[in-house]
């Protein structure tokens, strides 16, 4: 099963935008996270729609933060990306009439819902300025 790494990739980009303090092109961001610029543009468009970033066209154009990272939570970004499932674990649906499959799916579903609720609650408590702040500070001092 393929994992969805959009959240971690977007967080990576947003922290870079804070550190760089100038517009960054989709091509530059794509290089940062080893993907295609088109993927970056599509993803960043979701963040622009939610007013977390802005973009300018032309020479010296690119993407930049629309608000400080201290005003954005992990939950905000999760919502902006479309509220995808936190977990990639899937429930079996091959034998829907089987009472054992139903019982297993019910138990797994309950646990995953509980875990997801707890995780989303924590996401709402963590602002992006807290992400690796100590590591970023020492990195910027070195470079």
TrEMBL record:
GO MF annotations, alphabetized: DNA-binding transcription factor activity
GO CC annotations, alphabetized: cytosol
Database matches in Gene3D superfamilies: Winged helix-like DNA-binding domain superfamily/Winged helix DNA-binding domain
Name of the protein in its database record: Transcriptional regulator
Organism: Aliidiomarina soli
